[in-house]
Amino acid sequence: MIFEDILDCPQGVYIKFYSKTPCDVDSLYPADIKNLHVYVFDTNDKYVNVYTADNVTISKDYEFLIPIYPHGKYSFVAWSGIDSHYLLKDLQTGVTTKDDLLLQLKRASAVAENIKGTTLYAGTSEYVFLPDPEDIQAAYYEHTAINMREYTNRVEVIVEGFSKPEDYEVDIAMRNGDYAVKGNILLGMEMLHYPPEYTYTDNKLSAKFTLLKLETGYDDWLTIKTKDGKKIFYQEDFLGTLLLQNPDVNLSCDNDFVIKFKVEEDNGSYYVVEVWVNNWLIHTYKTGVEGGG
Known about the structure:
Blueprint (H helix, E strand, L loop, with lengths): L10 E8 L17 E6 L5 E7 L10 E4 L4 E9 L5 E3 L12 E5 L1 E2 L2 E2 L8 E4 L3 E3 L2 H4 L3 E8 L1 E2 L2 E8 L7 E7 L3 E3 L11 E3 L2 E5 L2 E8 L9 E6 L5 E6 H5 L13 E11 L2 E9 L2 E13 L1
Parallel strand pairs: 1-12, 14-22
Antiparallel strand pairs: 1-4, 2-3, 2-5, 5-10, 5-11, 6-7, 7-16, 8-9, 10-13, 14-19, 15-17, 15-20, 18-19, 20-21, 22-23, 23-24
Protein backbone atom coordinates (compact mmCIF):
# COMPACT_ATOMS: atom_id res chain seq x y z
CA MET A 1 0.00 0.00 0.00
CA ILE A 2 1.30 3.46 -0.91
CA PHE A 3 0.55 6.36 1.46
CA GLU A 4 0.34 9.89 0.10
CA ASP A 5 1.79 11.21 3.34
CA ILE A 6 4.41 9.04 4.98
CA LEU A 7 3.11 10.22 8.36
CA ASP A 8 -0.11 8.34 7.59
CA CYS A 9 1.75 5.02 7.65
CA PRO A 10 0.13 2.95 10.39
CA GLN A 11 2.15 2.08 13.47
CA GLY A 12 1.22 0.02 16.45
CA VAL A 13 2.12 -2.56 19.04
CA TYR A 14 0.70 -6.06 19.23
CA ILE A 15 0.43 -7.19 22.86
CA LYS A 16 0.18 -10.78 24.04
CA PHE A 17 -1.06 -11.68 27.51
CA TYR A 18 -0.13 -14.61 29.71
CA SER A 19 0.27 -15.52 33.38
CA LYS A 20 3.42 -17.00 34.89
CA THR A 21 4.32 -16.88 38.57
CA PRO A 22 7.86 -17.54 39.83
CA CYS A 23 6.64 -21.05 40.67
CA ASP A 24 5.25 -21.86 37.20
CA VAL A 25 7.31 -23.76 34.67
CA ASP A 26 5.27 -22.66 31.66
CA SER A 27 3.06 -19.72 30.74
CA LEU A 28 -0.63 -20.08 31.52
CA TYR A 29 -3.65 -18.47 29.88
CA PRO A 30 -6.34 -18.06 32.57
CA ALA A 31 -9.89 -18.42 31.30
CA ASP A 32 -11.11 -15.81 33.79
CA ILE A 33 -9.23 -13.04 31.96
CA LYS A 34 -12.25 -11.98 29.92
CA ASN A 35 -11.77 -8.25 29.55
CA LEU A 36 -8.87 -5.84 29.28
CA HIS A 37 -8.00 -2.25 30.09
CA VAL A 38 -4.67 -1.39 28.46
CA TYR A 39 -3.13 1.94 29.47
CA VAL A 40 -0.52 3.53 27.19
CA PHE A 41 2.37 5.62 28.56
CA ASP A 42 4.98 7.64 26.66
CA THR A 43 8.73 7.84 27.10
CA ASN A 44 8.28 10.11 30.13
CA ASP A 45 5.81 7.64 31.71
CA LYS A 46 2.96 10.08 31.13
CA TYR A 47 -0.49 8.76 30.26
CA VAL A 48 -1.45 8.74 26.57
CA ASN A 49 -4.65 6.71 26.16
CA VAL A 50 -6.56 3.61 27.24
CA TYR A 51 -7.89 0.79 25.07
CA THR A 52 -10.42 -1.77 26.22
CA ALA A 53 -11.54 -5.17 25.02
CA ASP A 54 -14.41 -7.43 26.12
CA ASN A 55 -15.19 -11.10 25.56
CA VAL A 56 -11.48 -11.89 25.45
CA THR A 57 -10.00 -15.38 25.41
CA ILE A 58 -6.25 -15.11 25.83
CA SER A 59 -4.00 -17.77 24.34
CA LYS A 60 -0.53 -18.09 22.89
CA ASP A 61 -1.97 -16.80 19.62
CA TYR A 62 -4.14 -13.94 20.93
CA GLU A 63 -2.80 -10.42 20.34
CA PHE A 64 -4.35 -7.03 21.02
CA LEU A 65 -3.32 -4.24 18.64
CA ILE A 66 -2.66 -0.81 20.12
CA PRO A 67 -2.37 1.92 17.46
CA ILE A 68 0.49 4.32 18.20
CA TYR A 69 1.01 7.93 17.12
CA PRO A 70 3.43 9.64 17.11
CA HIS A 71 6.51 7.40 17.01
CA GLY A 72 8.74 7.02 20.03
CA LYS A 73 9.17 4.90 23.16
CA TYR A 74 6.06 3.56 24.88
CA SER A 75 5.07 1.16 27.63
CA PHE A 76 1.79 -0.44 28.65
CA VAL A 77 -0.08 -1.42 31.80
CA ALA A 78 -2.90 -3.94 31.53
CA TRP A 79 -5.70 -4.75 33.97
CA SER A 80 -8.38 -7.41 33.77
CA GLY A 81 -11.44 -7.81 35.95
CA ILE A 82 -12.22 -4.15 36.61
CA ASP A 83 -15.98 -4.13 37.15
CA SER A 84 -18.69 -2.44 39.21
CA HIS A 85 -16.93 -3.37 42.47
CA TYR A 86 -14.28 -0.72 41.78
CA LEU A 87 -14.08 3.05 41.43
CA LEU A 88 -12.02 3.82 38.32
CA LYS A 89 -10.27 7.17 38.18
CA ASP A 90 -10.20 9.41 35.09
CA LEU A 91 -6.61 9.79 33.92
CA GLN A 92 -5.27 13.02 32.40
CA THR A 93 -3.36 12.83 29.14
CA GLY A 94 0.19 14.10 29.54
CA VAL A 95 -0.24 14.46 33.30
CA THR A 96 -1.08 11.15 34.99
CA THR A 97 1.86 8.83 35.73
CA LYS A 98 1.99 5.12 36.51
CA ASP A 99 2.38 5.98 40.20
CA ASP A 100 -0.97 7.80 40.41
CA LEU A 101 -4.20 6.34 41.74
CA LEU A 102 -6.16 4.25 39.23
CA LEU A 103 -8.74 2.20 41.09
CA GLN A 104 -10.23 1.66 44.51
CA LEU A 105 -12.26 -1.21 45.84
CA LYS A 106 -15.61 0.23 46.83
CA ARG A 107 -16.33 0.37 50.52
CA ALA A 108 -18.94 1.61 52.98
CA SER A 109 -17.94 2.56 56.53
CA ALA A 110 -14.56 0.83 55.97
CA VAL A 111 -16.23 -2.45 54.94
CA ALA A 112 -15.12 -3.58 51.50
CA GLU A 113 -17.55 -4.75 48.86
CA ASN A 114 -17.83 -8.52 48.59
CA ILE A 115 -15.79 -9.58 45.55
CA LYS A 116 -16.55 -13.30 45.87
CA GLY A 117 -16.47 -15.06 42.50
CA THR A 118 -14.45 -12.31 40.79
CA THR A 119 -10.81 -12.07 39.81
CA LEU A 120 -8.53 -9.10 39.26
CA TYR A 121 -5.29 -9.22 37.26
CA ALA A 122 -2.64 -6.65 36.37
CA GLY A 123 0.69 -6.52 34.56
CA THR A 124 3.18 -4.20 32.87
CA SER A 125 5.19 -4.38 29.68
CA GLU A 126 8.77 -3.54 28.83
CA TYR A 127 9.40 -0.34 26.88
CA VAL A 128 8.80 -0.59 23.14
CA PHE A 129 10.33 1.72 20.53
CA LEU A 130 8.61 2.66 17.26
CA PRO A 131 10.81 4.41 14.68
CA ASP A 132 10.04 7.55 12.71
CA PRO A 133 7.94 6.55 9.63
CA GLU A 134 10.10 8.84 7.48
CA ASP A 135 13.15 6.78 8.40
CA ILE A 136 11.69 3.43 7.33
CA GLN A 137 9.25 4.61 4.64
CA ALA A 138 6.72 1.95 5.63
CA ALA A 139 4.16 0.82 8.14
CA TYR A 140 5.71 -0.60 11.30
CA TYR A 141 4.41 -2.86 14.07
CA GLU A 142 6.24 -3.97 17.20
CA HIS A 143 5.38 -6.84 19.55
CA THR A 144 5.46 -7.19 23.32
CA ALA A 145 3.91 -9.32 26.05
CA ILE A 146 2.46 -8.68 29.50
CA ASN A 147 2.54 -11.12 32.41
CA MET A 148 -0.86 -10.84 34.11
CA ARG A 149 -0.63 -11.57 37.83
CA GLU A 150 -3.74 -12.38 39.85
CA TYR A 151 -4.51 -9.94 42.68
CA THR A 152 -7.51 -11.75 44.17
CA ASN A 153 -7.05 -14.27 46.98
CA ARG A 154 -9.45 -16.75 48.50
CA VAL A 155 -9.04 -17.40 52.22
CA GLU A 156 -11.02 -19.76 54.42
CA VAL A 157 -10.65 -19.46 58.20
CA ILE A 158 -11.85 -22.47 60.18
CA VAL A 159 -12.17 -22.52 63.97
CA GLU A 160 -12.83 -25.88 65.63
CA GLY A 161 -13.68 -26.37 69.29
CA PHE A 162 -16.16 -23.68 70.34
CA SER A 163 -19.26 -25.09 71.98
CA LYS A 164 -21.27 -22.29 70.37
CA PRO A 165 -19.34 -21.26 67.22
CA GLU A 166 -22.22 -19.07 66.08
CA ASP A 167 -21.33 -16.67 68.92
CA TYR A 168 -18.01 -15.80 67.23
CA GLU A 169 -16.91 -13.94 64.12
CA VAL A 170 -13.72 -13.52 62.13
CA ASP A 171 -12.36 -10.23 60.82
CA ILE A 172 -9.59 -9.79 58.24
CA ALA A 173 -8.52 -6.19 57.72
CA MET A 174 -5.81 -4.67 55.53
CA ARG A 175 -4.90 -1.39 53.80
CA ASN A 176 -4.87 -2.94 50.33
CA GLY A 177 -7.89 -1.51 48.53
CA ASP A 178 -6.23 1.34 46.58
CA TYR A 179 -3.96 0.83 43.55
CA ALA A 180 -1.70 2.89 41.36
CA VAL A 181 -1.89 2.48 37.59
CA LYS A 182 1.18 0.23 37.53
CA GLY A 183 -0.41 -2.12 40.05
CA ASN A 184 1.23 -1.39 43.39
CA ILE A 185 -0.79 -0.91 46.57
CA LEU A 186 -0.79 2.73 47.64
CA LEU A 187 0.57 3.34 51.13
CA GLY A 188 -1.33 5.03 53.92
CA MET A 189 -4.81 4.41 52.58
CA GLU A 190 -7.95 3.34 54.44
CA MET A 191 -8.04 0.12 56.44
CA LEU A 192 -10.61 -2.17 54.85
CA HIS A 193 -12.51 -4.94 56.60
CA TYR A 194 -13.40 -7.76 54.22
CA PRO A 195 -16.87 -9.33 54.48
CA PRO A 196 -16.87 -13.08 55.24
CA GLU A 197 -19.43 -15.74 54.40
CA TYR A 198 -20.11 -17.99 57.38
CA THR A 199 -21.13 -21.59 57.85
CA TYR A 200 -21.55 -23.28 61.23
CA THR A 201 -21.57 -27.03 61.90
CA ASP A 202 -21.53 -28.51 65.41
CA ASN A 203 -18.42 -27.00 67.03
CA LYS A 204 -16.93 -25.58 63.84
CA LEU A 205 -16.97 -22.09 62.34
CA SER A 206 -15.97 -21.44 58.72
CA ALA A 207 -15.48 -17.92 57.34
CA LYS A 208 -14.65 -17.51 53.65
CA PHE A 209 -13.11 -14.30 52.32
CA THR A 210 -12.05 -12.94 48.95
CA LEU A 211 -9.22 -10.45 49.45
CA LEU A 212 -7.16 -8.27 47.16
CA LYS A 213 -3.37 -8.32 46.80
CA LEU A 214 -1.51 -9.78 49.77
CA GLU A 215 1.78 -8.08 50.54
CA THR A 216 3.54 -7.32 53.80
CA GLY A 217 3.72 -3.78 55.10
CA TYR A 218 0.06 -2.83 54.74
CA ASP A 219 -1.20 -3.26 58.31
CA ASP A 220 -2.85 -6.66 57.96
CA TRP A 221 -4.75 -8.28 60.85
CA LEU A 222 -6.83 -11.34 61.59
CA THR A 223 -9.14 -11.16 64.59
CA ILE A 224 -11.47 -13.73 66.13
CA LYS A 225 -13.94 -12.21 68.56
CA THR A 226 -17.40 -12.57 70.02
CA LYS A 227 -20.15 -11.14 67.85
CA ASP A 228 -20.98 -8.56 70.48
CA GLY A 229 -17.38 -7.35 70.25
CA LYS A 230 -16.83 -7.58 73.99
CA LYS A 231 -14.18 -10.27 73.89
CA ILE A 232 -11.29 -10.66 71.48
CA PHE A 233 -10.26 -14.30 71.40
CA TYR A 234 -7.36 -13.99 68.94
CA GLN A 235 -5.67 -11.09 67.14
CA GLU A 236 -2.43 -11.37 65.19
CA ASP A 237 -0.65 -10.17 62.08
CA PHE A 238 -2.40 -11.98 59.22
CA LEU A 239 0.61 -12.42 56.95
CA GLY A 240 3.70 -12.46 59.15
CA THR A 241 2.31 -14.47 62.05
CA LEU A 242 0.02 -16.76 60.07
CA LEU A 243 0.31 -17.27 56.31
CA LEU A 244 4.05 -16.76 55.97
CA GLN A 245 4.84 -19.16 58.82
CA ASN A 246 4.18 -21.95 56.35
CA PRO A 247 7.48 -22.25 54.44
CA ASP A 248 5.65 -23.49 51.37
CA VAL A 249 3.50 -20.36 51.08
CA ASN A 250 4.68 -17.91 48.44
CA LEU A 251 2.52 -14.81 48.05
CA SER A 252 3.86 -14.36 44.52
CA CYS A 253 2.54 -17.79 43.55
CA ASP A 254 -0.38 -18.74 45.79
CA ASN A 255 -3.90 -17.32 45.85
CA ASP A 256 -5.82 -19.90 47.90
CA PHE A 257 -5.35 -20.42 51.61
CA VAL A 258 -6.98 -22.36 54.45
CA ILE A 259 -6.19 -21.34 58.03
CA LYS A 260 -7.41 -23.69 60.73
CA PHE A 261 -7.50 -22.90 64.44
CA LYS A 262 -8.08 -25.66 66.96
CA VAL A 263 -9.25 -24.41 70.33
CA GLU A 264 -9.81 -26.09 73.68
CA GLU A 265 -11.71 -25.11 76.79
CA ASP A 266 -9.95 -24.79 80.11
CA ASN A 267 -11.79 -23.64 83.24
CA GLY A 268 -14.52 -21.96 81.23
CA SER A 269 -12.21 -20.16 78.81
CA TYR A 270 -10.97 -21.05 75.32
CA TYR A 271 -7.39 -21.14 74.11
CA VAL A 272 -5.80 -21.75 70.74
CA VAL A 273 -3.81 -24.99 70.85
CA GLU A 274 -3.01 -25.48 67.16
CA VAL A 275 -2.83 -23.29 64.05
CA TRP A 276 -2.59 -24.79 60.56
CA VAL A 277 -1.99 -23.03 57.25
CA ASN A 278 -2.67 -25.08 54.11
CA ASN A 279 -2.33 -28.31 56.11
CA TRP A 280 0.97 -27.22 57.65
CA LEU A 281 1.09 -27.01 61.44
CA ILE A 282 2.62 -23.60 62.19
CA HIS A 283 1.91 -23.24 65.92
CA THR A 284 1.18 -25.52 68.86
CA TYR A 285 0.62 -23.67 72.09
CA LYS A 286 -1.75 -22.86 74.87
CA THR A 287 -2.13 -19.13 74.49
CA GLY A 288 -4.27 -16.46 72.89
CA VAL A 289 -6.35 -13.70 74.36
CA GLU A 290 -8.78 -15.28 76.78
CA GLY A 291 -12.30 -15.50 75.46
CA GLY A 292 -15.59 -16.63 76.84
CA GLY A 293 -17.48 -19.66 75.65
